[in-house]
Structure formats: C-alpha cells, structure tokens
Amino acid sequence: MTLASMHFRKRLRQSRYALHISLLGLALATGILLPRSAHSQTVDTVSDVPIETVGPARRYAFVVVGLPGDEEHREKFIQIVGIWRQWLTEIAGVEEQDVTLLIGNGENDAEPATAELIRTRVAELNEQLTPDDSLWVFLLGHGSQDDRHGWFHLPGPDLNTAQWAGLFAPLEAKEQLLWLTQSASGSFLKPLARPGRVIISATDDGEVNETRFPHALAEIMRKQLKSEATQDTATAKPSTVLELFRETAHQVDQSFEDEKLVPTEHAQLDDNGDGSGTEAADVAAPRDGESGADPAVVDGASSDRIQITLSPIENKLPL
Prior knowledge:
This protein has helices spanning 3-30, 71-90, 115-128, 161-168, 186-192, 213-229, 241-258, 301-304; strands at residues 40-46, 49-54, 59-65, 99-103, 134-140, 143-145, 150-152, 159-160, 175-180, 197-201, 268-270. By secondary structure, the protein is an alpha/beta fold. β7 (150-152) and β8 form a beta hairpin. The longest helix has 28 residues, at 3-30. The radius of gyration is 20 Å and the shape is globular.
C-alpha cells in the first residue's frame, strides 16, 4: 500500500467518523435514538432523560518485550507478559485479535521485537485506529539512558526516546495509555507526553536499576484474574487506571521496605500532558467524594476516569 493511499484511507475514515457524529446530533435533536456502542460504560439520568457516558469504541493493546539478556530474565518476561495478555483479554476488554505482541528474538511463536518490526506494527496501528478508539502500550525489558536520550534495548538497533515519541506522534485515539515498566523509563516520560495521553513509568528520570514494577503489576493482574474466575466481587478492584497505578506503586514501595532497602525506583504518572511525572502518593484525583481535580493542572484526574473493564450495559433507552 502506498503512502498516498494510506493517507486517503485515513481521511476517508475520519470523514465517516465526522458524518457519524453529525447524524448522532441530528438523531438526538429529533428524538430518534441510535443503537449504543457495545462498550458503553454508564448511564446517568437527569430529569428522566438518559445521558450516556461512552467509553472507547474499541480497545487495542501493543506489547513489546525487549531483549532479555539471559535465560532467567527471558523466563520471567515470558511469565509476566503471559499474565498481562490474559488480563487484557479477560479483564480490560481487548479482543484477542487486537493484541499485538512482539517478544525479544521471537520467543513463544511471537514476532521478534526488532526496531524495524516495531515501526511497521505501530504504523499499522496508527492507520487502523479511529479517533474514538483506545490504545494501551506496554514496554517490558531493560533500558538505559545517556546525556541525550533514554533507550529501550532490542535485538539489533535500539530505539531511543525521541524515536519512540516519533512513532506515536500521529496517534489519534482518544484514550492513549502507555505503561513503561523498564529501567530508565522515567526518561521516556517528557518526550512522549502530550495532552490527552496517560503515561506511567516505573522509574523517575535518572533511575536505571532493574525494576520491580512489572512484577508487581503482573501480580495484581493475576489476583484480579483469580477474583474474576471465582466471582469474588469483594476484590474486583482496581477498577480504574489510577487505582491500578497506585496499588502497583504501593506494592513496589512495600517490597523495598520489607527488605529494608533504599528504593531505587519511584513510579511516575503524567496524565495532564506537561511531561512532568507525579508519584502515586501525590496524585490529586478526587477521592471518596472530594471535588474534582482540574486535569489540565494536576496529574491523576484523567487516569481516574479510565475504566479498566469494558463491559456492555443493558440498553435502557425506550424503543
């Protein structure tokens, strides 16, 4: 497919999206009700008029496992990404065919995580996603940083922070969530930041030790999968991205405290697009009925609105 044809297809899809919005406005104005999205989240009622809060039309996941370095890390990474993938499809509402997985040199029948293939798959996602969709990106592996860039280690040439930022610059999905769990991931936060995007890094800028964050994240996901399988609704949380970030960061902090070690990683959240991260204890999203925080000023408000579970709701509008 030529670049010109790709651009034409994208413009055509955007035109169809704009037409859909116009028709929706006309339907609401005239009292004609259109079918709901399969991923609608909630219905509020004001003066007996149903008001729908709609989540993303479709959620995609892009998971990259970098070069493991040795057999021990290869096995650990395979185990972690297996939990992530199961959680994405069973809890987070991602269809199996919408998970793109690249692993190291191509282990477990997955495609290899080379710079060339990463560029290709991201370009395909940028072309495929509509403005109403969602993309969750996960990086797992080893990273480093120098005076200019952070790096994510891959088989063959690595990709630096500026290159990763360029890959995702054309992304138009309304829900963009990046889980950067590798060492030196804090150096990725500023280059990748943009309004409307949620970025979670396992470390602060300058922290280059191996991270515990992906292990803690996988453990929380594993427990949630177990709760789902046993219908244990009492432990159904975390239900939002902010809750998941807080719980993961807390477990990491607790592991250092239990071992009486000085923490070598401080997870960061940036969801107001300013490129400056905030630790879990300092995010300012509303809690327990507090007034809402301004998402343009503080970190936490946007990630608190991203629901983990995409589950259909009963259509309660009159026919």
